[in-house]
Amino acid sequence: MSEWMRVCPLEEIPRLGSRVVQTGKGDIAVFRNGLDEVFALRDQCPHKGGPLSQGIVFDRKVTCPLHSLTVQLDSGEAVAPDEGCTQRYRARVDKGEVYLNIS
Description:
Blueprint: E1 4-9, E2 17-23, E3 26-32, E4 38-42, E5 56-58, E6 61-63, E7 70-72, E8 88-94, E9 97-101
């Protein structure tokens, strides 16, 4: 059974930005891109653990602020030639509210 947790109104996440949600599974970064799509990743770069929530969001990607590794927001996979992956979580918008599923 999956449970959706309300995070906040979409407008509280800056466009091309993120918001950190603290959970029993660690910090999760919820991102909003320029098309108002939302994505959720573990807030830890697969390279050296940098905070992805502080990275630069563009298209469907985020660049780690520490060493410029780029991660796909929809999969958590590093963009070639980089390697690695961070945990992805399901996120959605319903009636202007952002929800996160961490199960």
